[in-house]
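Morning. Coffee machine broken again, so started the prediction first thing and wrote up yesterday's gels while waiting. Chain of 120 residues, entered below exactly as on the submission form.
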Amino acid sequence: MISNPTHIAIGIYFKPHLSPIPLISVRVTNEVALGVRKYAKEIGIPIITDKKLARKNYATHRRYDYVSFENIDEILRLLLWLEDVENAGQPVQDEPLSSEDKFIEGEDTKIENKDDNLKN
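Came back before lunch.
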């Protein structure tokens, strides 16, 4: 949720596996914007106060519009920053091994791959 402190609330929906471009899911003003902000806060939706960005997107988009090419960089940077903040402090998980890779520990560590064999 991007907001001007009290007058505008813009919801951004972004699920890259469904659509590579974010869309405007909420576009409201005044008392409705205050209510949307309150509800978003209650259910744990992040609210970013950016007066300029909220006003620009309110002026140039309608509800269910995809974010325009002119605004996409700013929105994606914001979403990437938010993802970094949400992931901060989370344990790093190892990527699962593919079925083609096998790790065998012995005197020397041997990494087998279908393309080549390396010994360390």
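Strands lie at 2-4, 8-13, 23-29, 48-49, 102-104, 110-112, 117-119. Going to sketch it on the whiteboard this afternoon.
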